[in-house]
Amino acid sequence: MDKAVVTNKLTKRFGNFVATNEITFEVAQGEIFGFLGANGAGKTTAIRMLCGLLKPSSGEARIAGFDVYRQTEQIKQVIGYMSQRFSLYEDLTVRENIRFYGGIYGLSRADLKAKSQQIIEQLNLGSVADKLVVDLPLGWKQRLAFSVALIHNPKIVFLDEPTGGVDPITRRQFWDMIYEAADRGTTIFVTTHYMDEAEYCNRVSIMVDGRIKALDTPNQLKRSFDVDSMDGVFQILARGTSTK
Amino acid sequence: MDAIVIERISKSFGETKAVNDVSMSVKTGELFGLIGPDGAGKTTLFKILVTLLRPDAGQATVAGFDVVKDYRRLRTMIGYMPGRFSLYPDLSVEENLTFFATVFGTTISANYNLIRDIYVQLEPFKNRRAGALSGGMKQKLALCCALIHKPDVLFLDEPTTGVDAVSRKEFWEMLQRLKIHGLTMLVSTPYMDEANQCDRIALMQTGQILAIDTPTGVEQLFDKPLFAVKATETYQLIQDLRRAPFTETCYAFGEYLHLTTHAGVTPETVNRYLIMHQHQHSEVKPIQAGIEDSFMALMQHG
Q1: Do A196 and B161 touch (CB under 8 A)?
Q2: % chain B with pLDDT above 70
Q3: Dihedral sign computed on CA atoms, order B89, A38, B112, B120
């Protein structure tokens, strides 16, 4: 089993509205997969189904081999999740957040201790380990949130706009962490509104009105649409016009 | 007379200097971008300029009125679109607009020409509750409400944050069209790629201004050799280049890495190094810095 994600005609309807419309794709283990689309294109609905949080209306999906209808508890054990809006408890300290998430995922006392030490050292958070998360700069919070999302060594981690609002250097440091995690074999499933970040992905899918309109490597997408940037590809697909 | 004049404004919250001795001015009719990440102090500066916060030190005028002493008169001259959706979700589209017009003692029809372009897209939904609109529509309605009293100066605080690349482009096109009405606009954004939409920009970081100039002027502040580099193994390439003796910084920039080096380094130097480290299909070309390159350089030396 070396596919992190496999879907077949995965669909979600809300009343008459088809939020996610028969999407079919695969993501390989260890791949950095960019999941792009305009606001309202159906990305969040799709991600919620893949995380086992929302039951599909029809179609199939397996996450690390687990079925999204019947094995949602197993799915939650093998995935990590981080969103820009909420990931850490701001009125807990750095150390408490790590312990809390580690505890939720059932890490042993010894593992938890080792993990806490490792994360705090790696992120250079020694001086603020006992400070409340609310007082950390946004960039630090985001890197901590990412490390916490990986605390149980998930097979796949979902990152929902992880870099929104941070400065350009911190944004790139964050991508360094993504590359490192992928290099260790973790599958990265990431959404972003920064089109330069789409270029950092191994493959990218672009959703428009609930469907996947394109899926390929950034290079191949640029070649097929005859543009020189992923922004160009995105503008053509999501807006229906060329900005060349 | 400049539309906005800021002289040595500071504002702290506890220990945090949110805005630290900032001075700048915005010309009448200018589309001016305040560009910086979260925590730069953009929103605090906006709140001071729209009279919602008093500065600890310094002074500022907007449309000729002092932001502290003349705040009552000033409030009628400005439009303000805060970063968070701030309309009445239980009122319909039309009711919201009517409400804002009435508060400012005017009517929708009196200033309709200013919002026509934008409002026609909302008109099919004019009876829908504002809270039930899509993100893009909410944003358009908020812009209409900020414009309906025909302000001299329009303040837009992060109107495009969290918005997809297509809608962001459309929003800037709306602002470009508004320029013909002679409005002065101050717009903040964390997206560096939006800088080129502005007449002039200020780069802001941790309460201070790093640079003020035209977008081209800011790009020209970058004074080191800069190369775009790529090879088959991007992750390995970044690691290797960061260890190279000639490297100052190396960051991912879309398809390429941007490599800043010491003076006098040529593409041949870099190429030789890449071959030595067995990189395949490598490409090295000197490039002009963009806004983001300048911002990152200023952050590191500022």
Answers
A1: no
A2: 100
A3: negative
Nearest CB among B38, B136, B169 relative to A138 is that of B38
- C-alpha B233/C-alpha B248 separation (Å) is 21
CB proximity list for A85: less than 8 A, separation 6 or greater: A160
Decide if B221 is inside a domain: no
Displacement of CA A2 from its chain's centroid (Å): 18
* Cβ contacts from A onto B, under 8 A: 95
Range of the domain at A16: 3-239
| A170 contacts B37? CB cut-off 8 A | yes
In which residue are the tokens 């879907």 written?
Answer: A7
Domain residues for the domain of B277 are 226-301
Q: Are A5 and A176 in contact (CB under 8 A)?
A: no
Distance from C-alpha of B299 to C-alpha of A66, rounded to nearest angstrom: 46
Report chain A residues whose CB lies below 8 A from the CB of B292.
168
Residue B141 resides in a domain: yes
Q: How far apart are the CA of A168 and the nearest CA of chain B, in angstroms?
A: 7
Which of A166, A188, A196 is best to mutate for the B interface (most B CBs within 10 A)?
A196
Give the Cα-Cα-Cα angle B143, B146, B150 (nearest 5 degrees). Answer: 115
* Number of neighbouring beta carbons within 10 Å of residue B85: 15
The alpha-carbon gap from B158 to the nearest alpha carbon of chain A, in Å, equals 10
Same domain, B53 and B79: yes
Q: State the 10-residue block means of pLDDT for chain B, 302 residues long.
A: 96 95 97 94 97 97 97 96 90 97 95 94 94 87 96 96 87 94 96 94 96 97 96 91 96 93 96 95 96 94 62
Q: Rounded CA gap, A62 and A69, in Å?
A: 9
Confirm if A206 and A213 have CB atoms less than 8 A apart. Answer: yes
H helix runs in B57-188, sequence order: 71-77, 93-103, 112-119, 135-147, 165-178
Which tokens hold the place of B144?
A: 């209409």
CATH number at residue A144: 3.40.50.300
Q: Which of B37, B164, B254 sits opposite A238 (nearest CB)?
A: B164
